[in-house]
Amino acid sequence: MYNQNLIQKIQDGSATIGIIGLGYVGLPLVIRFSEERFKVIGFDIDEKKCKSLNAGESYIKHISNISIQDSLTKGFEATSDWKRIEEVDCFLICVPTPLADDNVPDLQYIFSTLKSVTPYLRQGQLMVLESTTYPGTTEEELLPVAIQAGLKIGDDFFIGYSPERENPGSSDFSTQTIPKVVSGVTANCLAVTNALYKEIVDKTVPVSSPKVAEMTKLLENIHRAVNIGLVNELKIAADKMEIDIFEVIKAASTKPFGFTPYFPGPGLGGHCIPIDPFYLTWKAKQLGVDTKFIELAGEVNTNIPNWVISKAVNALAKSDKPMATSKILILGLAYKKNVDDMRESPSLDLLNKLTNLGARVDYHDFYIPKLTPTRKYSFEKSSVSLDTISDYDLVLLATDHDAYDYKLLVAHSQIIVDTRGRLDRSASNVVAA
Fold first, then answer.
1. What pTM did the predictor assign?
2. pLDDT digits (tens, 9 = 90+) for 157-213
3. Would 388 be classed as within a structural domain?
């Protein structure tokens, strides 16, 4: 039987693994499978990425060159040649799933991947989707492709869904130690999918269907988005009452039960939390269900950059400095501290809005020396030196990298707006936002 043969190849390490999409999700999987001595072929449409990886060079800050080089010595190679899908026994799809402008799911990268691999599908393969998406995607999009290719699902071809759970920049969790939710279209599909991930993670969490796994991923991120929306809203209320919300959260966190701390910021960023809730709201609307609670949290989080800017405008006005003639320095472009990931970063929104108000805006980020055009913005800037910080009318702390000397920042800034609760707010030049 094909399923038993494939499970045997997985368990004896002779299976060849394909990873489609060599970014923040795909590369850690490449490294982890290579660590377990699997032959890994990485696929990406960006030939520059493939060339860089084949030269042993990482383009992601928290993934070292040594990790890539170690994978190469164990047989890893990157390619943009889709025909090589024929060589792999199991392949994982780790491509982006962004939103269109009207908050409608954009599955173009999944669709283009399926179109590229279809001519090379064969019996005895496992195809797993890792990209975050709405419940039903695996069965509605992946399943028909394999059936149309003449393959028998659960018999000679296997399809699973296992949502990514990466936490870039975290030293507390790794690809190996984070439990992995796994699912399959049929019982045999689940068995093969589970066998594959058991080789690289300490614990798998099998669930009954891809829809359950897809919904699980959305729940994880909606949980965060809603609670961050709550503390962002409370931050605004606390500010009006002249209460430090970070002190409140610290005090509430001493309760040993019934409370989980979430922290406000300048807005939501990253590849998951600002996007994933809208995947569920879109799907729910297709079924006639309104997800008002989720949408309200999204509205609150989306408007937070505007509130931060209003705090900056008011702070400048108190010093008789109009925004339109001010020099502003944004500290941190990454969406979270200690990484070089700018996806959906609120810092980019702040940079864009402040520029549109007429301010001259620069940035500093240890991890992002150059800012090049993104899908939404067309900026071309370089990180400036912190030696000139006193020349700026206002400094805006947007990303609280640990490498910043916060006492020094306060000492040399004319006005510094703190969106992360990292500064001494009793200082006369610190503005809480």
1. 0.92
2. 999 999 999 777 677 788 999 999 999 999 999 999 999 999 999 999 999 999 999
3. yes
Is-catalytic flag, 94?
Answer: no
Same domain, 198 and 240: no
Q: Which residues contact 175 (CB under 8 A, 6 or more apart)?
A: 28, 29, 31, 32, 166, 200, 201
CATH number of the CATH domain containing 402 = 3.40.50.720
Interacting residues of 106 by C-beta distance below 8 A, sequence separation 6+? 97, 98, 99, 100
- 327-331: strand order across its sheet: 360-364, 327-331, 394-397, 416-418, 430-432
Residue 217 inside a domain? The answer is no
- Residue 17 and residue 166: Cα distance in Å, rounded? 19
Give 26-35 pLDDT, tens digit per residue.
999 999 999 9
User: Which domain, by its residues, includes 142?
Assistant: 2-206
| Gap between the Cα atoms of 432 and 364, Å rounded | 20
Point out the catalytic residue in the list 50, 94, 189, 272.
272
Mean pLDDT calculated for residue range 62-70: 94
The reply to whether 281 falls in a domain is yes
Same domain, 258 and 309: yes
pLDDT at residue 51, as a whole number: 97
